[in-house]
Amino acid sequence: MTVKSMNSDNGSNVSIVIEGRFDFNDHLAFRESYQQFLPNARYTLDMTQAEYLDSSALGMLLLLREHAGGDKAQIDVIGARPEIKNILAIANFQKLFHIA
Amino acid sequence: MRKFLLPILVGICAVLVQMFIEHAYIGYATVVGMTSLWLWVIHRNGARVESKSYLADETQTRHASDMDQQFSSLFDQEVTVLNKDLQRCSTLISEAVENLHSSFNGLNAHSHQQANVVMDLVNRTSEGEPGDNQSGTNAENPGGEDKVSFANFAGQANALLDFFIEQFISTSKDSMKVMYGFDDVSSVMRQVEDLIQEVRKIADQTNLLALNAAIEAARAGEAGRGFSVVADEVRNLSQTTNNVSRKIEELMAEAMDNIRKAQNTIEHVASKDMMFAIESKLTVNTALKEVDNLNSYIAHTLMRVSENTDSISQEVNVAVQALQFEDITRQLLEHIQQRLNAIVKMKEAVNTANTEQKIHEMMQIITQEKQVLTALQANTKSKIVMQENMDAGDIELF
Questions:
Q1: Nearest residue on chain A to B186, judged by CA atoms?
Q2: Distance (Å, whole) CA B337 – CA B334
Q3: What pLDDT was estimated at residue B120?
Q4: Is the Cβ pair B281, A55 closer than 8 Å?
Q5: Helix, strand and coil percent figures for chain A, each rounded to 5
Q6: Which residue of chain A is at minimal alpha-carbon distance from B170?
Q7: Which residue of B58, B82, B151, B230 is surrounded by the most CB atoms within 10 Å?
């Protein structure tokens, strides 16, 4: 997998693009993609090219949410394909993230 | 005078036959009785006419008298048989009706019991619809809590699965947090390794400097002897520093190795394919849907059973109502008996009418009995009308 992050408006809008399989091996890259940005930033996860999520990926998404302020976090998940959306739904993530 | 007897009796006969045309068996028996009576009267009249014409003929008269007696005994015999048969009919019908009554009452009671059982089942199956239990909080519905149903069971299984998935993802999250911690430790250790490399470089340079100092001390000869000792000591110190650094590097490598092992374990705990959850969820959802289908099918079937029970109840009511025929039939049988009695009386009057005086008495008796018969007929007709009216009404079971 590759993780790329970009920011605009001085780091207040962070966009993270996830491609391919998103699993345990990506723990360093994923963490580095957001660690440098402030908690109150608005995050957008672009999953258009994501093919697969395992449970550690779901755990990492929850850690991103924690980093972004927990219940105050503003995280949009965009472009997820039906299989990915299904996994997010089973994990009840629609209550924690804004899944479009 | 006796000439009128014939049309009168035939008239009575016709009325009786017409009246009992619906009760074939009894009508038939009556016709037999009446026909024998009629034949007997014709014969007797004929005999009397003959006896008037040929009074002198004693043999003829005796013959006629024998015939009279024969017909009379035949008539009596038939009337006795008819009476017995009527009695038997009455007994049979009342016994059968009694049995039917208790049987239908039993049927009705059982059908009511069945209806109650079915209603209980309907109530049980309609409670705890599967859709209600998605949240898994059955405590919100205290009434349905003690009701064990497939829907409740499936709902609880679903809630349990949701809880399990949530816990599982939470465990993954915590594991990843530990993983991030190890990442931080690894990063620090790499910095420490770099620093130790620096220490080793310093030790190597110190070693070189000590070597140079030793060379310079040897060149100075006797004057540099003391300095040579110092240079050796410095060299020893740099080598010791190198050894300590190597030792630290070895321990660091060991620690890194342990961290790597821990990370592998964490990976094993944290990363699981989510297919198991998807499949379990799918299985539970399918089960819930099937339970839903089964429930509605059972409810539908039970409703049909319940409707059938109602129909049985109605049919039993109709049957019990129809059993009222016994009352009317019994009265009809009594009427037949009374009619037979009237006919017997008429016959006896005709039989003994051998003088003008007796003929007069006979006519009185016949008129009297005719009135009895007319009254009976009126009574019978009104009963039949009553029975027809009863068919339309609703009868309470008793």
A1: A28
A2: 5
A3: 82
A4: no
A5: 40, 35, 25
A6: A59
A7: B151
| A73 touches B: beta carbon within 8 Å | no
Question: Which residues neighbour B223 within 8 Å (Cβ) at sequence distance 6 or greater?
Answer: none
Smallest CA–CA distance from B272 into chain A, residue = A55
Query: Which of B184, B271, B278 to probe by mutation at the A interface, max A CB count within 10 Å?
Result: B271
CA B197/CA B200 separation, integer angstroms: 5
Which one-letter DSSP state was computed for residue B146? T
Residue A35 with chain B: CB contacts under 8 Å: none
Q: CA Rg, chain A, in Å?
A: 12
Mean pLDDT, chain A, rounded, equals 90
* Closest Cβ–Cβ partner in A28, A55, A90 for B270: A55
Q: Which of A53, A63, A92 sits opposite B274 (nearest CB)?
A: A53
Locate CATH 1.10.287.950 in chain B.
Answer: 148-272
CB-closest option in A56, A62, A91 to B271 = A56
Q: Phi and psi dihedrals of A2, rounded to 5?
A: -125, 140
| A3-7, B1-5, B257-261, B345-349: segment of lowest average pLDDT | B1-5
Mean pLDDT of A5-18: 83
The pLDDT value recorded for residue B29 is 57
Q: Map residue A78 onto helix, strand or coil.
A: strand
Write down the domain spans for chain A.
2-99
- State ipTM: 0.92
User: Largest Cα–Cα distance in chain A?
Assistant: 35
Contact B174 A56 (CB under 8 A): no
Q: What is the mean pLDDT of residues B20-34?
A: 56
Return the CATH class of domain A2-99: alpha beta
**pLDDT digit string (tens) for B107-121?**
888 888 888 888 887
A17 phi and psi angles, rounded to 5 deg: -105, 125
- Domain B148-272 CATH (choose: 3.40.50.720, 1.10.287.950, 3.50.50.60, 1.10.3720.10): 1.10.287.950
Confidence at B204, pLDDT banded by 50, 70, 90: very high
Do the chains contact at B180 and A63, CB–CB below 8 Å?
A: yes
Highest mean pLDDT among A91-95, B314-318, B350-354, B373-377: A91-95
